[in-house]
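batch job 7 of whatever, protein = O-methyltransferase family protein
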Amino acid sequence: MHFISEELEDYAAFHSENEPELLKALNRETHQKILQPRMLSGHFQGRVLSLLSKLVNPKNILEIGTYTGYATLCLAEGLKKDGELDTIDVNEELVDFQRKYFDLSDYKNQIHQHLGSALDIIPQLNKKFDLVFIDADKENYINYFNMIVPMMNKGGIILSDNVLWSGKVLEPVKPNDKSTKVLLEYNKILKDDPRIETVLLPIRDGLTVSRVI
């Protein structure tokens, strides 16, 4: 869903940083070969993620939901030289595709892939995080949030994607639409939780930036 016209989106992208060549190739191959390419962060949101990561300059990043690795590489651009990025996904078929592009990047030794349920894997990561990007199954957003807040460094940033959910957050919720119900509750939790301060940005499908106090 476009919350502003495509022309304005194109204008915003044109007047933002250029998309790196490696990410252009990843973007193109994702659209050619992978189902649901709409899930890819894309040029404009990717540059937003990159800039936020560079502002934080994190030692440890956690990404919940890798897909084809586009956002992963954007987030990695802000890593400290000795930093690490742990990314988790359940789709075994995408592991080699992700690794191909990770290995072509400057961050190949800093990105660690994890295959399986994030709810099982996160507790095994013995780290404190400076930056977390949540972009996985919406029904577990609240569970992910509750799990990672205690693992965040003070001043750390939690990014949550798809929080406007194609505008469904403003529509009557269908009885069987669990994802929208969870996102409505999640957005309220982020607004009310005293451990964080939050702003919801109407970028693409909605991106929330929450800072741990």
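notes: Residues 6-212 form a domain with the Rossmann fold fold (CATH 3.40.50.150).
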